[in-house]
Amino acid sequence: MKNKPLQEMSLLMRRLTNISLLFALTLMGSALQTASAADAKDNLPLGRTAVAIVDGQYPASYFPNTEILGADEMRITALGTGMPNQTKAAVSISYLVELGNGDKFLFDLGSGSLGNLFSLRPDFSKLDKVFASHLHVDHVGDFMAMHIGSWLSGRFTPIHFYGPSGSTPELGSKSFIENMQKGYAWDLATRSGALPDLGAEIIVHEFDYKQENKVVYQENGVTVRSWPAIHSLDGSVSYGLEWNGLKYVFGGDTYPNKWYIEYAKGADVASHEAFLPPEALARYFGWSLKQATYVSTRIHTEPQAFGKVMSVVKPRLAVGYHSVLSPENNAAIMDGVRKTYDGPLALARDLMVINVTKKTINVRMANVDEYALPPNVTDGYKKAPRSDAKQPGDFISSGKWKGYTPPPMPKK
Ligand SMILES: [Zn+2]
Ligand SMILES: [Zn+2]
């Protein structure tokens, strides 16, 4: 059994489908429409109509902005599931969580993940909360790119960054953001005034990395809690998001830890790293077995350990990530996990989509246009106050070539 990962996956998919069908009758086309219908309309590609999902019958692929999220439903999209040394198929870590009440949350924004977020053409005016598990580049490397990219594409209010403290102030989230703003001073100065003024702001919510299942965020019926993780230095955490009787757990990089075992319990969907086992890691990166064993089993969680954690936590769906799932890597991870865990499982790939209700969990892939335009912006964005755009100084302006005259500016 353990040597047949594909059969395992298809068994899981069948099981999930069966669950969907089992409860389809009870749903009986119950009204799944919600406030998010209006939100989806803004970014709907021409010629498409967003539809409610009836009787849990999801299309085989998820086409962004074509489905109305049910009022009681949560949609989790893996934007990045890979490593710091990326491939096109697996960029660094990020998850988007969308709720039936219209709220949206980002967990991590690792390098490379922003392109996948843009490919979903989200309404960036609603995407203003980022929860960072820790400050490794494969978890926060695209935060500034997101801050500026979303400010260009519809966000006209401050962005909120929730992240852990470190063992010293300079290793914490507040210092990270302040120094990013200093580093990007030129970029931020060029856009300030031309783009909505409030969109320039980053509000940092730094919390104690040692806190155990304490509230980080609570609003609109949504509670996000954090607890410590064990990874390199102090200052990695995991999060639990609870809303409307559903619970999603986002595991930060970690050695298997007692807090996750305790606080991830009751999760509908629990994600946790499932790193490459030592031999596969050594082969993949060209490392010595000693170095690979140290990284895989002391800094991270190798597949058998992931399976042990999930066999205790027992989520409705366990999600393993933080690897590049080439066929041989996929087999190595699946072999390891299945030695210690036989429950519902999905190894996350970039743009895997999980729809969760109390009755069904549906796993599939998103189908995106690689040349998708940025999303349309709202009227609120267009009307948001802007101070004056900046100009280059006199010396640089005097260098404009007289041989070219730009077209006249339109009235609007
Ligand atoms: Zn890390
Ligand atoms: Zn990582």
Verbal overview:
- The chain is built from 14 helices and 18 strands.
- α9 packs across α10 (289-299) and α11 packs across α12 (327-340).
- With 412 residues, the chain is of the alpha/beta class.
- The model is unreliable at 1-40 (pLDDT under 50).
- The chain has one domain: Ribonuclease Z/Hydroxyacylglutathione hydrolase-like (Metallo-beta-lactamase, Chain A, 4-Layer Sandwich), CATH 3.60.15.10.
- Helix content is 31%, strand content 23%.
- The protein is globular and about 70 Å long.
- The protein has a nine-stranded mixed sheet. The chain has a seven-stranded mixed sheet with strand order 10-11-12-13-14-15-16.
- Bound molecules: zinc ion (2 copies).
- One zinc ion binds next to α4.
- One zinc ion (ZN) is lined by residues 93, 136, 138-139, 253, 322.
Short description, anyone?
The longest helix has 23 residues, at 5-27. The protein is α/β, with parallel strands linked by helices and 412 residues long.
Secondary-structure blueprint of this entry?
Layout: H1 5-27, H2 36-42, E1 51-52, E2 61-62, E3 67-68, E4 74-80, E5 94-99, E6 104-107, H3 113-119, E7 129-131, H4 137-140, H5 143-152, E8 159-164, H6 173-183, H7 185-191, E9 202-207, E10 214-219, E11 222-231, E12 233-243, E13 246-250, H8 258-263, E14 269-273, H9 278-285, H10 289-299, H11 303-313, E15 317-321, H12 327-340, E16 345-347, E17 352-356, E18 361-366, H13 379-383, H14 394-397
